[in-house]
Amino acid sequence: MAPVTPGIHHVTAIVGDPQRNADFYVGVLGLRFVKKTVNHDDTGTYHFYFGDGEGTPGTNITFFAWGEQGQRGTFGAGQTQTTAYLVDEDSLDYWADRLAAHDVEVTREERFDETVLGFEDPDGIGLELVAADAPSDATPWADSPVPEAHQLKGFYSVRLAVSEFGPTEEILTDVLGFEHEATDGGRRRYRSATGGPGSVVDLVETDQPRGRMGAGTVHHVAFEAADEATMREFREAYKQQEMKPSEVIDRKYFRALYAREPGGVLFELSTPGPGFAVDEDLDSLGTSLTLPEWLESDRDVIERQLLPFDGPSIPAEK
Ligand code: ZN
Question: How far, in Å, from the CA of 97 to the mean position of ligand 1?
Fold first, then answer.
């Protein structure tokens, strides 16, 4: 049987200042800072991971922080437009108030019979909170500034913007195992055939030219592959669709494979394990700069190149 992804594993975006990034995702959104490392392909750049209390796959949004001097991106076709987190229905008013108190502009709308709060992070990354009857694997984080009842419950969906539905839809349905579920206005919704947390992908068509990668844009969206063997099956299926997948790469916390789908969005496949506790205790996730073994000998040089960052600060509640 052809493999099926259960859903989103992580989303990775590019931002400017690392301090501002961490202060927002921890201090405002209440996520846990679960890993501080560097981009393995660009070791002068921080790679941050923010997730639930344990860094569970399907809850982690990650960032390359290019600094304020880094190139800004422009949104366009071939990009992830928004990343949506699941929240409880009862939490929507809490979040509308909390975001407003932190000077974040929030929209509220109904889509696919769900209430959605929309806003942007300080770098312009599009985010949403969706109240839906959907499963969650998220573990609360006891030290979050957000009360447990209102904490984000992992990803719900991503919205991808492409020039035309067809080619991207074909990869979603024929390779990754998504099924077309509904259409609402110009938005097509797909759900993983196996369901589970973070199993929704929305597609929209845009007239805008191809987006340009840079700060304020999403770099890639990663879908889960059960294990490395499954990943290799997906790899063969990509090749049959004339995509050009990477090799399977060791990202220390998971194995990864990259391939750009024909609409231009960079898709990653990631294994659930081994996870973030391979190099830090669960209690101390995100407290040290972790490096893969093959970069340890360069640690001094790497640490000197990194931008100033004091760890996430949690602002006094207004
Ligand atoms: Zn990734």
Answer: 32
For the residues of the chain, what is the DSSP string, one character each?
------SEEEEEEEES-HHHHHIIIIIIT--EEEEEEEETTEEEEEEEEEESTT--TTSEEEEEE--TTSPBPB--BTEEEEEEEEE-GGGHHHHHHHHHHTT---EEEEETTEEEEEEE-TT--EEEEEE-S--------TT-SS-GGGS--SEEEEEEEES-HHHHHHIIIIIS-EEEEEEETTEEEEEETT--TT-EEEEEE--SPBPB-SBTEEEEEEEE-SSHHHHHHHHHHHHHTT------EE-SSEEEEEEE-TTSPEEEEEEEEE-GGGSS-GGGTTSSB---HHHHTTHHHHHHHSPP------PPP-
Domain that holds residue 155: 8-305
Q: Does 318 score more than 50 pLDDT?
A: no
Is the full-model pTM beyond 0.85?
Answer: yes
Report pLDDT digits (tens) over 302-314. 999 999 999 999 8
Within a domain: residue 129? yes
**Does 313 fall in a domain?**
no
Cα 256 to ligand 1 centroid, rounded to whole Å: 7
283 Cα: distance to centroid of ligand 1 (angstroms): 24
Ligand 1 center from residue 153 Cα (angstroms): 20
CATH number where 187 lies: 3.10.180.10
